[in-house]
Amino acid sequence: MQKFHSHGKLLITGEYVVLDGAVALALPTKFGQQMEVTEIPETVIEWKSLDREDKVWFEDSFKISDLNQEVLPTSEVSKMLFLALRSAAKRNQQLFKGEKGYQIITKTDFPREWGLGTSSTLIANLAKWTDVDAFELLETTFGGSGYDVAVALQGSAITYRRTPAENVIFKATFDPPFKDRLFFVFLNKKQNSRESIVHYRQQEKATLDIAIEKISNLTQSILTCTTLAEFELLIEVHESIISTLTGLKKVKNELFPDYPGAVKSLGGWGGDFVLATGSDEDMEYFRKKGYSTILSFEEMILSN
């Protein structure tokens, strides 16, 4: 049996504009996904995905001989998985040679609705097993900027910049002296981001270029800032820039206008987690509003 594991992610800076070349900061989470691969005598791939309660949430079987076919499964999950396996087979000709198959079992140790990277950790684990470039697998399946796969592969804080030629990835250190004043609140609200993406794509190139430069500079400033007050100011500026680009209200203005600390959206605005500043006592503000899933920086983030 072979075992693989990749960590989830949180995008701290650069949401939306990471798609167009902004330097983004992403952190790995202590939570992730593991994958166990066992050889079997049949020439099939038997796939089973478990949640953190060991309950099966997805199960399918693929004939290895079908991986060179153009006909795709109808189920969306099966289709994405089939595309990933087919892409890996094309790029590693020795992968599925011989009269054998595989039983593959995956398991996340976080609730999938948390949005920490069920897909990106899967792609990273598949790339590790098949010895295929993870970003090529991503391109043929889920798409996206690729920062999440980069975090899954690196297992450390990174700065990430997507360019037409390559993905520029540098390991980073984000260990601020005020990290005990940072925590994450799960909003448990999926947002349809279609309208905000349309608004974002309507921005003039000059406007977008200026925003990308500002966000890239903010990313560097956030990496080096040493006081909570400076950090709160930087993320407030970041929120204002992204709010203008997307036409969305800042999450603090919309949901937490009377909160004394700062609140920042993470990733796609409107759902999953937000980053908040404050003390343990300040967490009670969110609990009183019905947000029961709150994790400290130490509970959530994998340290370098």
Automatic annotation (TrEMBL):
Parts forming coiled coils: none
Any GO molecular function: kinase activity
Keyword set, alphabetical order: Kinase, Transferase
Top-rank lineage group of the source organism: Bacteria
Entry keyword annotation includes DNA-binding: no
Classification via SUPFAM superfamilies: Ribosomal protein S5 domain 2-like
Protein name: Mevalonate kinase
Keyword 4Fe-4S in record: no
